[in-house]
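Standup notes
- HV: blocked on the assembly model, inputs below
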Amino acid sequence: MTASRMTDLEGRRVLLVEDESLIAMLGEDMLLDLGCEVAVAMRLEKAVAMARATAFDLAILDVNLGETVSYPVADVLFARCIPFIFATGYGAAGIDPAYGSVPVMQKPYQVDQMARMLRHLLVCEALPAKGESGRALPHTCTFGAKITEPHPIRAD
Amino acid sequence: MQTFDTSTTTLPTLRRGSQLHETERRLNAVLNNASVAIFLMDDRQHCVYMNRAAELLTGFSLTEVLARDCPLHDIVHHTYPDGRPFPLEECAIDRAFPENNQERGEEVFVHKDGRFYPVGFTASPIRDDDAKIIGTIIEVRDITEEKAAAERQRLLTNELNHRVKNTLATVQSIAAQTFRGRTDDAARQMFDARMVALSNTHNVLTSQNWEAASLRSVVESALAPHALAEVDTARFDLVGPDTRLHPKVAVTLAMALHELMTNAAKYGALSVPEGRVGVHWTLERIAGGERLDLAWTETAGPTVVEPTRRGFGSRLIERQLPMEFDGSAVIAYPPGGVTCHIRIPLTALGWHGQDLVTGRATR
């Protein structure tokens, strides 16, 4: 698989926030297959605590956590400058405009899409930021046509 | 929309400039600008006053109603929607004075133009100085929109039920086509059984409009051999009180029980004819709700050997389930039979956005 050859994700510490057991297991397995070190949080309080306590390289946040949404985790990650993506089955339209600059991964999880997006986060020059109207903010971390172009991979 | 001469829809006119005149003017302003229909009834169930909203609702003006000199029921509520006459004696609103303030109900009225329309009413007694009931005040509102919304909700729920079941069946079919001849039958059978367990749990959820699932139903459907069968009481001993489970708890718990049962059928108590499984649970009050303590106990099975490798089932139960619900779960392998203890706090039933949805749908 192409995904497993992407050594740039090897050893990255990824926070996965996902509230459904069976789906969390799938996401965790995909990240492990990509060579990441995974920490799973299934409840908001736990996810916020983990995001505060640990210096993750990347994070994947399921937007809808059943009784709540994962925006408070996003706020911690913004503050700590940890790059992350949202995962949702509903598409970008369902996301609060304040978080409009955050890349969105469509569920169900697919390992290639996940790898591509996480890899992109690592080479992004600017981090997305929270704003009153996220989409209007100048940000270089947009997804679209340019994702298919080759990106220099940060050497670290 | 009809219009009426509003001069008739006022309380009896009093001398200009008096205190009473001012009070009356204020009352008329309140009553005639209220969007709810208000009827004042005397002790013979005749309407002696109705506000403007009541005229618009019924199609009759107060003058017309007063001129008819009969119980209001015979003017706006005289026929059942099926066409049978509706005698006053059978009417919940007018039959007698309400015993308490704000008695509520729903009825179907007949408009002046002959059409039926659903209404919600609130009736309260009017008392004189001696607290003797001398009449009734009835508030009525048209609930056509609410009825239509409830019907749309019902249709949507049916559609959701259908889609979910269909999607599960589709996934099963895709798996069957994809893995045909590429994987062993045992893996396929395990996959099918898990899909069925998931599907059966959704049956429990659909029967209760996705709001909650009965704990007992979830346990029974997880342990039944198939969707239409009952739990084999010769094998299973289910003891515990019922409660309502959040849909998420229902799905994960059902999958956990399914995995325990599959394991028992393969290696444990259910692999021999005399083996039995006890599923005993209690509910304990905790802050913000109750806590489910569920014990799975296998007896009279073959001597248990602790597995060297943990599979999907133990990962789901021992790792995911406690993380998902902030609870605990332990599977033990004593020689006499596998046991599993699950503790899950059952806190608020609800989901993100529920206030938005139910705040409008019910009231």
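- HV (later): unblocked. Chain B touches chain A at residues 246, 248, 252, 255, 312, 315-316, 320-321, 323-324, 326, 348, 350-352 (CB under 8 Å). The CA atoms of residues 127 and 133 of chain B lie 4 Å apart.
- Next: hand off to the docking folks.
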